[in-house]
Amino acid sequence: MTPHFFFGLCMLSMMNIVQHTAQAHEIDEGLELGAAISVTSADPVRATISLQPRIAFRAVTIELPNAAGGAVKACDFGNLVAGQTYRCTVSGDVTDDDTGLVIAISGTRAVPVPGHDDLSYTAFTVPNPRYNTLAQAQRKTEQLRKRAATLDSKPVNVRQ
Fold this sequence. Notes:
By secondary structure, this protein is of the alpha+beta class. It has helices at about 5-15, 135-150, and strands spanning about 25-30, 35-40, 45-50, 55-65, 70-80, 85-90, 100-110, 120-125.
């Protein structure tokens, strides 16, 4: 076992020991949407998305693109007024081998910005407490080991 692989395996095992919390991490910034998240449960995910747009929007959609069983459209809003608050309650789950549930928010501005498209995006990821980093690393290592064994199993006298 190489020292780099061993170090990586140790780091993955330490990450798995750390207590999982129900926090959400912002992926992208769509600041004009004024999106905020309040997570009440991580397994399954239950959260409230609050929107307080800084500009007017013709439409806003909140989706769970990687939910178990397929993408889920949680809420559709039309004609959002700047400064007002809108809320959407979302619930969903992901498979055990997924790192977290993504909550994607996309909006169409009411007044297009010259030189830009009229779309705005933001997303949050709620970590999956069942995700086992060490087990995933071990599965990948085993898959790579099997592939290497398959490549090495050819007889020496076979010409390519």
